[in-house]
Amino acid sequence: MKENLMALKAEIGKIIATALAEDIGPGDVTTTGALSGMETGYAKAVAKSDTVIAGLDVFRETFLYMDKEISFKAQVEDGQSVAKGDIIALLEGRLMSILMAERVALNLFQRMCGIATQTRRLVEAVQGTPAKIIHTRKTAPGLRILDTYAVRAAGGYSHRFGLFDGALIKENHIAAAGGIAAAVAGVRRRIPLTVKIEVEVERMDQVEEAIQAGADVIMFDNMSPEEMSRAVKIVAGRVPLEASGNVTLANVKAVAATGVDYISSGALTHSVKAADISLRVEYRHE
Question: Which of 44, 170, 188, 196 is the catalytic position?
Answer without folding.
Answer: 170
